[in-house]
What does this fold into?
Amino acid sequence: MTRTEILTRYRRLRQISKEHHQGVMDIIAPDVMLNWAKRLGLTQGKNVVLESEYEIILAEDLATYLARPGRSHPLDRYARAARLAPNSDEAIVLEAMRHPHFSLWRVERRHETAGLILRDLLRGGEIRLIDEAMEMNARPGVEMAARLLSLEGFEMTARIIVPVTRDLMEEVFDRAPALRRSRGDVLARDPRFAIGIYRAAVATGAMDSVRIKHGRPS
It folds into this structure.
């Protein structure tokens, strides 16, 4: 595929992803969102207080991708309600959303046609990310935490990226020392790790430096 063809396909799937994420948020109860915001340190009493517009996306990501104990997964409930046509673009994106992978990533280089090559810092190996804004702005060596969706030969960000620094990682493991015993895929799949990354991002003000936008982050 040419660069134009790849980006055209990416934009189509990105728009569907935005619509799905909004649809899932529509079925999540306000008290669930408030609880996630509280766990991330974004509340004062019953009010959500933000230092950055991106911080609320962290809570939305957790509300979308993590099920509460004893409750069905939000994406499963959404899938049952949506009743998407099999093999449609909408079904393809939703299936990717139901099987995301969270990890720490480092930008290695630009892909020769379109996108970026990222290294998975927890599992090893490289993936191809298509993201127009990041391709324009992210330099080799930049590290981040993100939940990615596997699509048609490339990956796409699910909701939001978190810039990773030494201070942020120290905050994660200081608050959740049990995570120090995990490595690789086990650590990446542990919901406490994503929660810890997001909580540390709020505590350290990491989201203040995020300036890469796709309109509203999605």
Observations:
- The first strand starts at residue 43 and ends at 44.
- Residues 3-27 form the longest helix (25 residues).
